[in-house]
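Question: does this match?
>
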Amino acid sequence: HGLAFEIGCEGFVIGLLAIGAYLSGALLFGGEAVGSTMCFQTLGLAQLVHAFNAHTSRSLFRVSPFSNRHLNFAFFFSAALLTGVVLFPVTRALFAVTALSPGAWGVSVGLSLVPIAFTELYKRLMGRS
C-alpha cells in the first residue's frame, strides 16, 4: 500500500472520530452546540496529535517523539490556542462554540489520541515498527 492509501486511511479515521465526537456531544452531553464544539475540538487536537505520527515512518515507540523542539513548540502552542477558543467566553463567541463539561473534554481528548493507536497499528502491520 502506498502513501496515498495511508493518508486516506488516516484521514478517514480522523473524520470518523470527529463525527463520533459530534454525536456523543449531541446525544450525551447537551445537544447540537456541544456536539459541534466537541467535533471542532476533536478534529483540531487529532490533527495536532497526528503530526507526531506523520513526523516519522517508524514507530513512535522506537524514536523519541519529543526530540523535535520546533514540532513540540508548534504542537503545544497550537493546542493552547485551540483550547483557549473553547475556554474563554470572548473566543467562544467569535468561533460560535460553547463551553464543555469535564466529561465532554475527556471524550474529545480521548478521541483525539486514537490516531496514535491507529497509525502505530498500521505501522506494525506494514513492518515499520
Remarks:
- Residues 37 and 97 are 5 Å apart (CA to CA).
- Helices lie at 3-28, 32-54, 69-87, 89-95, 102-125.
- The mean pLDDT is 90.
